[in-house]
Amino acid sequence: MRTILLLVGLIVSVSGCTPMKPALSNSGMAEVQSLDVKGRQGLLINQKLSFGEFQTSKVKRSWTRGREGGFGVPVGAGGRDILSYTTIEKAQTFSFQMEDIHGNRAIVYAISEFAAEELQLNKNLGGLVEDFFGVTLSGNNIFYLQLFINNEFQPWELILNNEAAQVFAKEYKGLFAASEEQYYVLKPITKIEGKKGPQNLIMGSIGYEIFNKNEEPVAAVSLVDAGRVFFHTTDPSERFLLANLCAALLLQEDIAE
Fold it and tell me: Checking DSSP bridges between strand 50-51 and strand 54-55, what pairing results, if any?
């Protein structure tokens, strides 16, 4: 994923369109808020990420490169293992916490670079997962997270195929859900703002737009350079939820090589 992002950045730089600005749905609306991201680049030791009024705690990371073993990040508050204890060729795991001025608290556990069959999904998402990904979830480059808000027992879960989001960027959709009634859809960003309006990328994507279940854009995240977060929504609770999601997407690192 990181390689494709670098190639996209190079192509756009050569064409004279720097810095890259995502062309978002309804991006001309005045209420779209654009936030610079701090802390994404540089050393990962004691890393903290911030944008706008949001800031993560120190990010805890671990890399697993073995044939057997556990997740390396504590099991979520719901008591459900994130991965089955079968072969894990390699994986990146990380966790962080976040609070806001309204008293909301969240903890995020994330893992990437593993096969879909390793997942133990929430049964409440069964039908929704089938609708999005077919009868079975497949792929060897899955990014998955559990996000717990205010000590709730039931987490929000992200299921994202990094490879498919780049190779099939115009068609792919990722899923972020707590239940079949509470969910968001992630769509790869495949256009950037040019001198003559939006223009299509030659390949891949540079981030994700996030849509609610009514197909309305509520947020977006650019993954190029230092990163950038965009909010359409002004609802404090929704902003906090999606801020955690965007932070996790920004913190994911490509360890394929």
Answer: antiparallel
Task: Please give the Cα distance from 5 to 7 (Å, whole number).
Answer: 5
Helix (DSSP H) and strand (DSSP E) numbers for the chain: 4, 15
pTM for the model: 0.83
Instruction: For residue 136, tell me if it sits in a domain.
Output: yes
| 257 belongs to a structural domain | no
Preceding peptide of 217 cis, ω within 30°? no
What is the residue whose two structure tokens read 């309006």? 197
CA distance 130 to 231: 29
Ramachandran area for residue 137 (φ above 0: left; ψ -120 to 50: alpha; else beta) = beta
Torsion, Cα of 88, 119, 154, 215 (10° steps): 120
Residue 179 forms part of a structural domain: yes
Q: pLDDT digit string (tens) for 112-148?
A: 877 666 666 666 676 777 676 654 566 778 898 999 9
pLDDT digits (tens, 9 = 90+) for 51-73: 999 999 999 987 655 434 444 44
Task: Specify whether the CB–CB gap between 247 and 49 falls below 8 A.
Answer: yes
